[in-house]
Amino acid sequence: MSASLERPSLDAAADARLTGGTAIAVAVIAALALVPVYTTLTGNAFLLTLFTRVLILAIGAVSLNLIMGYGGMVSFGHAAYLGIGGYAVGILAKEGIGSGFVQWPVAVAASALYALVVGALSLRTRGVYFIMITLAFAQMIYYVVIGLDRYGGDDGLTIYRRSSFGGILDLNNKTVFYYLCFAVLLAGIYLVARIVNSRFGLVIQGTRANERRMQAIGFPTFRYKPACFVIAGALCGLAGALLANHANFISPAMMHWTRSGDLIVMVVLGGLGTLFGPLIGAVVFLLLEEGLSRLTEYPDLILGPILLLVAIYAHGGIEGLLRGRRG
Amino acid sequence: MLYFIEQCLNGIQLGMLLFLLAAGLTLVFGIMDLVNLAHGSLYMLGAYFAATFAIWTGSFVAAVILALVVSALVGMALEIVAIRRLYARSHLDHVLGTFGLLLFFNEAVRLIWGPAGMTLTLPPQMLAAVQIIPGIYYPIYRLVIILAALAVAALLYFVVMRTRLGMLIRAGASNREMVGALGVNIKLLYTLVFGLGAALAGFAGVMQAPILTVQIGMGENILILAFVVIIIGGIGSIRGAFVAAIVVGLIDTVGRAFLPDLLGHILSTNAAATLGPALSSMSIYMVMAGILIFRPEGLFPAASR
Q1: What is chain B's mean pLDDT, rounded?
Q2: What pLDDT was estimated at residue B155?
């Protein structure tokens, strides 16, 4: 427990600025910004598709990190928001509403609403019970969409037209779409940075360290935590809308519990409760997955033990490793 | 009415299977405080072992026994190599590490047994159905599952409540440092408990193998159900796991069988056919959420936590 008391940096941005983690993060972000340039020069369209996916899931990881890393709320059902955001886009598209100005706000609002309900009900429990109840709610949504016969049920639904934004943005242009995802990701990281350094964020971090003490000094933590939960849900719902547009396809599989596990892995791998950790974790995890599956027919035979080793030896994920060596 | 009784029996059979899985999970959880997502993998391995040994030996009973032993051995080896290094870490690290193990086991099974599933054929005398109440015929094998699981439950109760090993297990659950300080080899105890949990999970896999196809990922969805069971029952409580397993098994099976018809009375047939199965799959999670809202520590919270 003492480790978790030492680690929380109340001023995460300033703290990260001093460490090697930030240098790496800046390098990663710069590299990500240049991916479309590289793929245009080499004509490697697959790479652009892969990195678009990396960016979108990184948004999901950033959102999960807000509640899990800073708020201590370990949600094992975060893929549900990807699904809700995705299905909002898919269902509206199927019903003939193709405008992104309608689809995306609905995706965000639906995810926020779901987060509000789940948060209100599950934040009464703690510890491993909280992990499991968020998982249970995600499973419920999973079975709901399997039951949606009109929208493909178990098989999923193809989205024939990406969200249209009038003449402003053409999402069919892969480079435009990539930079849109990139912008959303950076905005998400900025949002988290602003939140965790605000008074609101300090209360949230204080709640992670010691909820009873926060209550004793007069903060109604039962109002702060659901608010934080809803913000994270809304952000991840937006990622879901992006994911549906990216794949042109939605299916219950995007909210299977192992997808929630993937998001947790990204956050913990990168560095829990650090600003850029989730981004680094998403990049490393997805590229590792991709690279290993090219290298061998059995990628998880290597990936699995790597995750185990990270869990056993790497306190604080990749960010933690960088910080430990430098510090 | 006859159909209802049959469905109830199916529900109890599923409940018994869930109990076998949940008992191991709740032991490991209650005593070592370990969230083990790889528990479903041990269930899967048990089924694969049984199918393989059945081919090698040609005997169903020998296959079951061998599969049980090998499951326990794999579990203990896993504990010594990997799991014991996770005890001191946070629940989140447990999730990460055992998620990695889950990926590893799925892939290892694909490497060893190939991507196609396997089947375990029952001996002919188990294929028949018997008349249990006048007018109701029920497959012998499903009765065997129920009885075998009941026997295991009784044995487990006896071991935990009446033997020295069980006394140490209970003591370990309430205060591990003290048990260690009194000179008990706590490392060995943990290895044994994990092996016991693995054997129970493997046994569940073995029993289920003839009913379902033995395939990769078969442990993933049932693992979540087993987690629901131990959460409803209260973590660390075997009695709670038993009650909750039967409740969950009955809700799932009976809901699946009757909800579509019931909904048909209020909704159009089409809507009911779609909504029914979805609602019955959801119902377990609704029950769990409901119970956690009113009893945040489950139905039978273990005294120590």
Answers
A1: 87
A2: 92
**What's the domain range around A175?**
2-326
Q: Which helix (H) or strand (E) holds A139?
A: helix A128-146
Cα torsion through B163, B164, B168, B173, rounded to 10: 10
Helices (H), chain B: 2-32, 39-57, 60-81, 91-113, 140-162, 164-174, 176-181, 186-208, 218-233, 238-266, 269-294
pLDDT digits (tens, 9 = 90+) for A142-185: 988 888 888 888 888 999 989 988 888 888 899 999 999 999 99
Of A247, A236, A233, A81, whose CA–CA distance to A156 is shortest? A247
Q: Is the pLDDT of residue A119 over 60?
A: yes
* DSSP notation for A259-316: HHHHHHHHHHHH-TT-SSHHHHHHHHHHHHHHHHHHH-S-THHHHHHHHHHHHHH-TT
- Burial class of B94 by CB neighbour count within 10 A (0 to 12, 13 to 18, 19+): buried
A76 interfacial to chain B (CB closer than 8 Å): yes
Domain count for chain A: 1
The count of CB pairs under 8 A between chains A and B is: 147
Residue B80 is predicted with a pLDDT of 95
pLDDT at A46 over 70: yes
Tell me: the pLDDT tens digits for B78-88?
A: 999 999 999 88
Nearest chain B alpha carbon to A267: B96
pLDDT in tens, B188-246: 999 999 999 999 999 999 998 888 889 988 888 889 899 999 989 988 888 899 999 99
The answer to whether B201 and B24 are in contact (CB under 8 A) is: yes
Candidate from B85, B91, B278 with C-beta closest to A131: B91
Residue A324: predicted pLDDT: 61
A125: contact with B, CB 8 A cutoff: yes
* Residues forming a β-bridge with B138: B130
Strand A249-250 to strand B136-139: parallel, antiparallel, or no bridges (unpaired)?
unpaired
> Which domains does chain B possess?
6-123+145-294 (1.10.3470)
Q: Does A308 touch chain B (CB under 8 A)?
A: yes
What single DSSP character describes residue B124?
G
- Selecting from A4, A139, A150 the residue whose C-beta is nearest the C-beta of B224 gives A139
Determine whether A46 is exposed, middle or buried from the number of CB atoms within 10 Å of its CB (0-12, 13-18, 19+).
exposed
- Does the structure show a pLDDT above 90 at B255? no
B136: distance to nearest CA of chain A, Å? Answer: 32
Residue A225: CATH number of its domain: 1.10.3470
Choose among B276, B264, B254, B280: nearest CA to B3. B254
What tokens appear for A227 in the block? 């608010």
Residue B39 C-alpha, separation from nearest chain A C-alpha, in angstroms: 14
Q: Which of residues 258-287 of B touch A (CB under 8 A)?
A: 274-275, 277-279, 281-282, 285-286
Do B73 and B44 meet the contact criterion of CB atoms below 8 Å apart?
Answer: no
Cβ distance A264 to B82 less than 8 Å, yes or no, reads no
